[in-house]
Amino acid sequence: MTKVLIIGGGHAGANTAFALRKDGFDGEITIISNEGYLPYHRPPLSKDFLKQNIAIEKLGFKSTDFYEEQKISVNLDTHIDSINLESNLAITKDASFNFDYLVFATGASPRLLPMENADSKNLFYLRQIDDVLSMHQEISADKEMILIGGGYIGLEVASAMIELGLKVTILEAEERILQRVTSREVSKFYNDFHSKKGVRIICNAKVTNLNAENQMINSVSLESGESLAADIVLVGIGAIPNTQLADLIGLECSNGIKTDQYCRTSIPNILALGDCASSFNTLFNYELRLESVPNALAQSKVVSSSIVGNELFNNEMPWFWSDQYDLKLQMAGLSSGYDECHIFGDIDAAEFIACYGKDGYLIAVDSVNKPKQFMLFKRALTNGFKLEMSLLKDKNFQPESIFSGSN
Ligand SMILES: Cc1cc2nc3c(=O)[nH]c(=O)nc-3n(C[C@H](O)[C@H](O)[C@H](O)COP(=O)(O)OP(=O)(O)OC[C@H]3O[C@@H](n4cnc5c(N)ncnc54)[C@H](O)[C@@H]3O)c2cc1C
């Protein structure tokens, strides 16, 4: 019987198992997870679960019964330390697992702050349920929270903490928040929105010291000379793909485990997907490493297809979402290299779509609170429509016309 062993029980790993069963694979499927919970939804960790609006039981993808019925074996609290390629074994400290196909779905880990006192008890990173459970012990309305990093995690946590009544400061090292992922226009919109909600945002902020006593940080010093009081510090400065195991067995890695469009690595029976993989995407003709749930889901179908012998490949248009306050941000396409940005809708009313163009054509959109129209743009980008920016800039343009042909 063919054995598929999946390392990692996150979105990528679990959905690979589900896709295999959907595709009719009747061999053995084993998921190895070094976390103590059945595979669960990660996005609520910085949103509703952080605010304690949903119970831990609601985070799981599926119940224990489901895994039993589907004959998917899940080994929790189990860490794969090494792999023996000659005998096709994945090895933990006290057991080993045999495989015909090995799937790397090892995800990513928070980038650590290389600084004295970064191991203090009130400094947190946010990746797993246990991180949030530890944070819950420290969160209360009267406290001051310093968020190091003005990316999605920092901003989502800021919105959650402000709603819970904490005093929140974001320290962003770059000249604007979300600099790596969006335009000046959208960064400014989020900067203004958070500021109005009471978040203090300091850009160009270089943290020089975490000042601590008894392993508890009490203030954070900046290069500017300013010192900020802190009860809780959260660091959200990006994530690094978990490629240590892949490196050990000589898989080609460069910002993630390199794969072809079928999610196959440089070793034929080993595949990789999700946050840990840098996968060739035929839409762009280069490798992309994306950190998003839609990416993990799309690639899980590709991995399954590669194992059962179908012919799916990576041609998914990247997309992502982020929820802050009552703002639903949805992004589709890759905006890097854009040469114009047109705002469709009303940015002051927090209902708009930033349309990014290159050489006269639309390449990506960032949508705030326009989910229906976002879906139209996303569909157009996914289907390879060449939408002229001049058309989008026409004051009579309506996204509905993209598919009705009336424009
Ligand atoms: C707080 C937070 C909020 C997010 N919000 C959004 C959002 O709103 N929208 C969105 O699209 N995306 C969001 N993301 C990103 C999204 O969650 C990830 O892209 C997605 O989880 C990637 O899935 P994955 O399975 O590749 O990796 P992961 O979910 O990281 O799963 C990998 C698993 O493998 C385990 N593992 C690693 N090495 C080993 C080993 N050697 N042995 C055993 N197990 C191992 C890890 O511990 C982990 O459990 C968010 C991420 C975080 C952290």
From TrEMBL:
Cross-referenced Pfam families: Pyr_redox_2, Reductase_C
Cofactor(s), names only, from the UniProt record: FAD
GO terms, molecular function: oxidoreductase activity, acting on NAD(P)H
Keyword annotations from UniProtKB, A to Z: FAD, Flavoprotein, Oxidoreductase
Top-level taxon of origin: Bacteria
Residue intervals of the FAD/NAD(P)-binding domain: 3-299
Keyword Kinase assigned: no
Alphabetical list of PANTHER family matching this protein: APOPTOSIS-INDUCING FACTOR 1, RIESKE DOMAIN-CONTAINING PROTEIN-RELATED
Entry protein name: Putative putidaredoxin reductase
Organism for this UniProt entry: SAR86 cluster bacterium SAR86E
